[in-house]
Amino acid sequence: MIELTRRATFSAAHYYWNDDWTPEKNEQVFGRCANRNGHGHNYTLEVTVAGEPDPVTGFVVDLKWLKDVIEREVMAAWDHRHLNLEVPEFANAVPTTENLAIAAWRRLEPAVTAAKGAKLSRVRIYETPEIFAEFRGGQA
Predict the structure, then answer these.
(1) Is 82 a catalytic residue?
(2) In a 10 Å sphere around its CB, with 0-12 CB exposed, 13-18 middle and 19+ buried, how is residue 126 labelled?
(3) For the segment 59-90, what is each residue's pLDDT rounded down to a tens digit?
(4) Which homologous superfamily is 2-10+40-135 in?
(5) What counts of helices (H) and strands (E) characterise the chain?
(6) Among this protein's residues, is 127 annotated catalytic?
(7) Where are the domains of the chain?
(8) Residue 14 is among the residues annotated as catalytic for this protein
(9) What dihedral angle (degrees, nearest 10) is formed by the CA atoms of 25, 27, 28, 30?
(10) What's the half-sphere exposure (Cβ side, CA atoms, 13 Å) at 104?
């Protein structure tokens, strides 16, 4: 088995807020990220698929196909959006890097599973070059 990773970048705004808490508690826990006006990041998404290379093409999956899946399932929904206000997954969930990784997996996994011979192995989201979260499926 081999793993193949494709990288994409997107820009989005967000803030951290829990409606069950007071403004003071939100500010205490989330600090400057609790500013309801939001702030933005240039995120990097890495999508890793695993499988055996096709004996004829040598591909685990066609890279153009994988790029199109990432564009359709994640980029079209998240790029240049305010995650809290425009993305359904974050209407009631804090759009942390961890939650972004889980949500990206859930968007991508059905399409990758439908492809013959490949499975989604890992989704990694970089919020900054120093901070990333990785999800490998399972319970979340």
Answers:
(1) no
(2) buried
(3) 999 999 999 999 999 999 999 999 999 999 99
(4) 6-pyruvoyl tetrahydropterin synthase/QueD (3.30.479.10)
(5) 5, 5
(6) yes
(7) 2-10+40-135
(8) no
(9) 110
(10) 37
